[in-house]
Amino acid sequence: MAETIEIDGPLTWREIAAVSEGGHLNLSETTRQRIVHARRIVDGLVERGVRGYGINTGVGALCDVVIGREHQQSLSRNIILSHACGVGAPLRRVEARAVMAAQIANFAHGYSGVRLETVQALLALLNAGIVPLIPSRGSVGYLTHAAAIGLVLIGHGSAMQGAEMLNGTQALARIGFEPIRLEAKEGLSLVNGTPCATGLTAVALARMERLFAWADAAAAMTYENLGGQADAFAEASLALRQSPGLQTVGQSLRDWLAGSPMLAATAGSRTQDPLSLRAVPQVHGAARDVFEQVAAIVDRELSSVTDNPVVSGSPEAPEVHSQAHAVGAALGLAMDSLAVAAAEMAAISERRIDRLVNPLVSGLPAFLAEDSGVSSGYMIAQYTAAALVAENRRLAAPASLDGGITSALQEDILTHATPAAWKVLSILDNLERILAIELLAAAQAYDLHPRARGRAKRTDALHGCIRAAIPIYRDDRPMNEDFDRMQRLMQGDADAIGP
Question: What Gene Ontology molecular function terms does this protein carry (predicted)?
Fold first, then answer.
């Protein structure tokens, strides 16, 4: 049964992530009243003719063009249609739902002035599993992604319910709504703010948190196969460095490798191990520390109002404030740092894969092939991992520094928060693939190990789980099919790696 989350105060990134996976949202009565009150303020502004950006003026460089009351509905509708400029493949279902949830959460603060009816339509689409098709590219911050959602609300655009494609009018009919005739300010609010970046970021955080556990598991299996020196992860020595993430990873590795006969047999065989083995707590731990910093920033963003303009006061004394809260600089910078952290984890995983397949350093059969020469084993799998690491290096270049000038110099600084979040998701796709390769290579190494003396309890259990789904590789099938199977295992079997 889907989890139901009630919006009473600010949502957290974890709640957005839960909704992205199928959870439902409800509005508390207090939240409903906040939304209604803000709408009354907008109506007060319209009645009094108080100038407000996007309420009774044009937008962007047209902000000084005053729009008469008789054209304000057309302005809202035209904003949606003209801003629907996204291109490329649509966001995946999980990502689109996260954007919708973050958009509803932003309106729920009660400073946007969107009508309750409009928010309820968006909420009903989300809870019915109807997801607008949102083109993934063409945004410098927000606007185009959100406009694709707005299109469905006014009866245009396309949406998916399961495998069925619907046009906007059909989608609304499924939830008992007619196409919405937007009122003053609603068009601008529907394309404004940072929900696009915030929603994508919440999905990225959830995925990265899951991959942390798999990265530690993969590192432990590789470490055990290569006969690492276990005291590198000793609690007392790791405690000398101040890093919560490092301590978490150290404990994780100790749990994975506890009681390993293989490590007991190699204890004291070398002074210290290569950095890709002994620096796992430092690298994985640093990435975890970055993750916690980014998570705090995202939760602050979700607690913030990111519309422009915002409304306050009362219907009798309405106020409108033009500012730059829709600029997602904090998110752009945060996601750039998360991108580098994820890419670094992928890079150290590839280095560990190389050590597993390289007979010059592993002590294992060359390229983990049973019949070396006739068979190539995992030789080219390491090539694939190296290619993905190189791709991550390109993707990890900072999006927040891309800059750019739009709207005839009116919007002359861009922070690219949404593209920053999008490229993190791409890096995480690659990280997952690389970890899948390392896990399979480590499982193969166990099977071919010339000095196997029994594995640690947890690594043995994970090896058994992998082998139950994917047999040993003998150059008898396309290897990328194994990668896909391993990724499905990583995505769907949390029990395989335990707590």
Answer: ammonia-lyase activity
For residue 267 the two structure tokens come to 């204890």
Q: What is the pLDDT of residues 385-435, one digit of tens each?
A: 999 999 999 999 998 876 666 655 566 566 778 889 999 999 999 999 999
CB 217 within 8 A of CB 439: yes
How far is Cα 333 from Cα 423, in angstroms, rounded to an integer? 13
CA torsion 207-484-387-284 (nearest 10°) is 40
Q: What is the mean pLDDT of the chain?
A: 92
Classify the C-alpha dihedral 147-150-152-156 as positive or negative: negative
Q: How many other β-carbons are positioned within 10 Å of the β-carbon of residue 279?
A: 16
CA distance 403 to 413: 6
How far apart are the C-alpha atoms of 233 and 467, rounded to whole Å?
28
Tokens of 307: 């519309």
Nearest 5°: phi and psi at 318?
A: -75, 145
Q: What domains does the chain contain, in order, with CATH numbers?
A: 4-192 (1.10.275.10), 201-497 (1.20.200.10)
Contact status, residue 217 vs residue 436, Cβ threshold 8 Å:
no
SS3 354: helix
87 — phi, psi (to 5°)?
A: -135, 170
Cα gap 208→206, rounded to integer Å: 6
Distances (CA, A) of 264 to 227, 269, 365, 440, 453: 9, 10, 22, 23, 9
Q: How far is CA 416 from CA 397, 422, 475, in A?
A: 12, 10, 44
Q: Which residue has tokens 């993190």?
A: 424
* Sign of the Cα pseudo-torsion (437, 225, 245, 243, in order): negative
Q: Across-strand partners of 318?
A: 313
Question: Per-residue DSSP letters for 174-241?
Answer: HTT-PPP---TTHHHHHH-SSHHHHHHHHHHHHHHHHHHHHHHHHHHHHHHHTT--GGGG-HHHHTTS
Instruction: For residue 309, say if its preceding peptide bond is cis, omega within 30 degrees of 0.
Output: yes
Structure confidence by residue, pLDDT tens digits, 257-304: 999 999 998 887 888 888 899 999 999 999 999 999 999 999 999 999
Instruction: Give the phi and the psi of residue 270 in degrees, each rounded to 5.
Output: -150, 160
Through-space distance between the first and last CA atoms of the chain, rounded to whole angstroms? 23
CA atoms within 13 A on the CB side of 371: 6
Q: Where does 24-107 show beta strands of DSSP type E?
A: 24-27, 87-90
